[in-house]
Write a structure and sequence with these properties.
183 residues, alpha+beta, Enolase-like, domain 1, 2 domains, 6 helices, globular, binds flavin-adenine dinucleotide
Length: 183
């Protein structure tokens, strides 16, 4: 563990990088700390990845935000879920996801769909429409949230007052330039 990200899956990934570098000193890898997810296994569950809205505001990053309630997709409606939700944050163009925060049943599983898209460099359009979403699965919460971001326009972009405190948000915003850890 070499950062303040005290998570088992981070430690495992770091260990794989260290093991690789010991065996391959002429082909060193670095650890990719972009889009590190985590979950809180409470009731309701919390699954999260990337920047929070507060972090974007503090850093002065313009963003789009959408909140998708579980109850507005078929599975959540059938479960009579009136409290769970997914909140997604995108860059101002609606191209890249900056953060995702889900509170409700299976949040840790649902957020993984977005981690995959972020880590593989997918755009929001690719995540939303580059695949078919099973109906009436709970994953439609994620699909609808992504579509909600795409439906927004320039008028929906939130422009926080500029703040130079970019350190706060630095390691949470996906850095696609980082060297990817290879499986
Ligand atoms: C109660 C608890 C619950 C947690 N739950 C979760 C969770 O649900 N999800 C999650 O992602 N993370 C969880 N974590 C965090 C996660 O366990 C740690 O982030 C992760 O194990 C860190 O891995 P590590 O390899 O860096 O350190 P460690 O797993 O602590 O391993 C360090 C090893 O080094 C050994 N060691 C220390 N000093 C020496 C020495 N001088 N010589 C030789 N060996 C030494 C130790 O004995 C230990 O085996 C939890 C942590 C705790 C304490």
């Amino acid at each position: 563990m070499t950062t303040n990200l005290q998570l088992k899956h981070v430690a495992n990934a770091e260990a794989r990088v260290v093991a690789h570098n010991i065996v391959n000193p002429d082909n060193l890898k670095t650890m990719d700390y972009s889009a590190v997810p985590y979950a809180v296994f409470t009731s309701p569950q919390v699954g999260t990845v990337g920047a929070t809205e507060q972090e974007l505001i503090r850093a002065g990053v313009p963003y789009r935000v959408v909140t998708q309630r579980y109850g507005d997709v078929a599975y959540g409606w059938a479960a009579e879920d009136t409290t769970s939700f997914a909140k997604l944050l995108a860059d101002q163009t609606g191209e890249r996801l900056l953060g995702a925060h889900i509170v409700g049943n299976h949040a840790s599983i649902l957020v993984q769909l977005l981690v995959q898209g972020m880590r593989l460099g997918s755009t929001i359009l690719q995540m939303a429409r580059g695949q078919l979403w099973i109906h009436p699965a709970l994953s439609e919460v994620v699909e609808n949230a992504l579509l909600g971001l795409l439906e927004q326009g320039a008028d929906d972009v939130i422009h926080p007052a500029t703040n130079t405190d970019s350190e706060t948000v630095g390691h949470h915003i996906p850095d696609t330039s980082a060297v990817r850890e290879q499986p």
